[in-house]
Amino acid sequence: MTTKGESNNTSSIPINGVNGIGSNHDNDYDDMENQLIHRHVTNGYTSLNGRNGIRNGADIDHVLVTGGAGYLGSTLVPMLLADGYRVTVYDIFLWGVQSLCFIANHPNLTLICGDVCDQTRLAKAIQDCDAVIHLAAIVGYPACEKNPEMAQRVNEGGSRNVVQSLRPHQKLIYASTGSCYGAVDGTCTEDTAISPLTLYGSSKAKGEALVSDVGGVSLRLATVFGVAPRMRLDLLVNDLTCKALIEKHIDVYQGSFRRTFLHVKDAAYAFMLALKNYKVMQGKAFNVGHESMNMTKEEVVHQICDAVPGCHMTTSAIGEDKDKRDYEVSYARIRQLGFQPTVTVKDGIKELIKILPYMDEVEKKRARNV
Ligand SMILES: NC(=O)c1ccc[n+]([C@@H]2O[C@H](COP(=O)([O-])OP(=O)(O)OC[C@H]3O[C@@H](n4cnc5c(N)ncnc54)[C@H](O)[C@@H]3O)[C@@H](O)[C@H]2O)c1
After folding, report:
1. Superfamily of chain region 29-227+261-293+325-344
2. Where does residue 176 fall: left (phi above 0), alpha (psi -120 to 50 degrees), or beta otherwise?
């Protein structure tokens, strides 16, 4: 077996989750950790998180990624380049362009500073590509509440512009969200009625409906966690780990609320999978995550306290989480296509602990999306 940290291009790690969470090694995280090798696949630009490239055929060569400089985009774009795609990032660089500096000299990367609300510029950028991955958005309920008009304009209007710019042969994959579900009894499948609780959820759901009308693929991501070239600290696992490191204490209210999580590299990988499996995924929505990462807030905090020395949890009967989502999700549909996450919440916390202490206040502020 290859050991962690080795760098080679062999194909000893099968894709399709043979070594992933939910495989035969479901809870055997130590074994999994030994097998998760973040190898540099192409030109040293990035890793596919221990997976081999999955690009197939020549029908998709050029991919345009809106919002490609963001948390998810800055993880996905290098993966696409490593898999041989030509990539154009179309982004207003709301949080800067620094997240893409490490791949700036890649010959297959083009950057366009453009707004998805600018239909003319967007249509021009899209005309020459084979597929669009639409990530650009005002992300998270606090950012949307702070500027509701902009949230509607970007999340719904921007998605309309993307859809209207598309030509019949071009493929579209949309970053949707579990926030579309809201609070749901029982387990959400893709057929569960959408009942978003926030403007973020409703504006993303409207974007999803537009995408679905033109036969695009919507990936309803769980809440993402982990380290990326552009960091976000307003996401539950990242935020609480940051708090734990600073305050050594997390007070949890409504700790029984159920949420669902996914590492940023696994989230990015789902888009690669959708490019590859576009024909069978076309026109459908897919929950992206894994049942083993359906967790209550309290369970997440326990994992953080286990990893941060001296940190303790208290529970509080009073206090209200403004994010009222409480839901459990089935991931059977995407699993049938071979999707298996590879990074556990526990391992995500470990990597966060390596990075967070060294982020300065300016970096942290920029990572909060409000
Ligand atoms: N991170 C998560 O937990 C999560 C979960 C579910 C869904 N999503 C979805 O994934 C996508 C990416 O999220 P993220 O976490 O990377 O967020 P992010 O805020 O880090 O990235 C969003 C990117 O979009 C760009 N952008 C914003 N407005 C734009 C505009 N008008 N025109 C062009 N670009 C614009 C920003 O500059 C930024 O680079 C979003 O659509 C989000 O709704 C994220």
Report:
1. NAD(P)-binding Rossmann-like Domain (3.40.50.720)
2. beta
